[in-house]
Amino acid sequence: MRLKLTNLVKRYHGLTALDGISLELSGMGSIVMIGPSGGGKSTLMRVLAGLELPDQGRVEVDGEPLPSHEEHLVRYRRGIGTVFQAFNLFPHLTALENVTLPLVQAHGQREGEAQEYAMELLRRFQLEVHAHKMPMELSGGQQQRVAIVRAIAIKPRFLLFDEPTSALDPEMTAEVLDLIAELKVEGRELILVTHNMGFARRVADHCLFLSGGQVLESGTAERLFNAPQTPELQGFLSRVLKY
Amino acid sequence: MKSCWFDVFFARRRGTKEVLPSYGPALGVLLAVLLLTLIFSFAFSRLQYGWNWSAVYVYRHKFITGWLVTLAISAASLVASLVIGLLAALAQKASFLPLRYLGKLYIEIIRGTPLLVQILVFFYVVADAFGIGNRYLVGVLTLALFAGAYISEIVRAGIESVGESQLESARAIGLTRGQTYRFVIFPQVVRRILPPLAGQFASLIKDSSLLSIIAVNEFTLNAQEVNAFTYSTMESYLPLAVGYLALTLPISLLSKYLEEKYRYAT
Amino acid sequence: MFKGINWLCLLVALALQVVVTAPTHAARPLVVGMELAYPPFEMTDANGKPDGVSVQLAKELGKALGRPVEIKNMSFDGLIPALKTGKIDLIISSMTATEERAKSIDFSDPYLTTGLCLLVNSQVRGATIADFDQPGRTIAVKKGTTGHIYAASHIKQASLLVLDKEAAAVLEVVQGKADAFIYDQMSTYQNYQRNKNTTRPVLKPFQTESWAIGIRKGNDELKAKINRFLADFRRSGGFSKLGDRYLKEEKEAFKLLGFPFFL
User: Which segments within chain B are labelled E, that is strand?
Assistant: First the structure.
């Protein structure tokens, strides 16, 4: 995956969420973003997911600029898998139906094929017992894992994870992070926002520190954690790694 | 804990759940009905009323015809009001602004004026101006417009109650707006609005009695006529009450059943 | 001494109470029911107080019986049930004494004779009730009136419209939704006056009827008193005066048309 951001600006209600971000990365399997709340991580994720249009600047993914027309954006969104912090699954559909919905409606697969493929994936991640349950009947961790299966079922170019475990307790956090680690090992390209520093170190090929709408530091996880250069990152790490 | 015979009349609390004794509900309903019967018998006995059911029995076909007409009118208005309500709710989200504000105006005016006034105005003024003389058609349309305004608000509330995050989710997986409405929003909206919708339908059935003022030959008018001929007021109006219950009770029961069936966390 | 005056005041107050309540205690109010929507017999004046021929008649009756009169306004088809259950003592509401009604309540001697006639849409032909009882024609009646009862048993071919209010029935005829409206002579005449362009009256009555005062069954003494009052009132010219006061125009119009005046 080649990612090129040129002077990206995004404002909400007078607040500047992204303040002229410029960045060029290529060959990174997994990119992890860390930083304080309100620093711009989620906004950047939403732009990369095609859910927001930047006010200024350019985004190029694999050499292609991000579309600005809604129809093209829809096609773009169909090519990437997104997992949010919570409420990913539709409460009125079973786990299986949640996975097949994008396959059938967004990717034109036949219902039968989609169901087979979805069951296969669920089985791979030990979720097939939950296939016909409603999200209400699943634990938070199980829901998130089904959401991840939904994201990978569409065979995306890359995956976006926006704090996927922030709403989960430690045990469920572990089961979800295990899955993401497995995906990394498989070679899938992903961009991840997380507060879980230990996981960030383990999984990141490249790490970005966002604060105040800017990328203040960029490098390997080792470098960022062991030798933070900006006071903001130093302060952030000292707070986050305290407990 | 010693159990006494009167425990069967009370619900118990176990933690946060309620536990009902076996036969408790059945017994409770029985006693409630008994109490009501006692009160009414007492009230009627004090009335020194000369009951005359035979006079009313002679006119039984009027009751039946009237009931059937009410059933037909209610059913027709129900369907029409659903369509109107849905369209009005969608109109309020339209990008064409005059349409959006037409919708809002319609809702405010209809909800803010009495149905009686609407029936008289629509039939004697509006329909007359357009040359539409069929009072059944006008009556059904008036009822449909009336209920439609309330239903559109119910639908709108239902749509808005589907969380933003779900719409986000739908966008993220690449569903178009139309697909989002079809597969995410409407299935949930339908299930959520069933209780208030059932309430609205029951009201519609009862409101249809107002069409009697433009001489629509429905249930209430027929009962009033029988009363006028026989002077047996109670014997005319009690079957009227039962008849309406026979229409509204099934709706209420169906609504409760559907509510249970589609209960899941949002 | 102070105590003495207190006792005296109390005694005086009690005595006054007895004196004041005594006469009213003996004369209970006479509650008369009528539908105040039938001018000029039962109506309300500009201040919303009951007025009209029936109201005046009720007041004169009250004077004769030595009881204060209370007028209760209610819909026409609620009058008989109200009388039966004791909510009102009398019905003076231009009510026709029919055999059917006489099964439920008693009637005084009749005090007015009128008849059922027709208010017809001006574009429709027809001179008798038979002309209107044809397939394809529509006849309007007001719910609970003798017109309604007549139509229910005699109208076989025309379709019937049962309206709640006189005004609605007239509107139906004016708008052509009904061909004719069966009602009493006097109201038909008045409605024609108000809608000269769109209606015409067919005033010859096809069924005569008399109005009487409604009394609850089992009150023969009261009935006798009322009949005595009615006879006295007519002899002394009371009805004539009421006719002059409220129905002057109609009296003259009917004289011209050759119909006997009914009051």
Answer: 12-14, 17-19
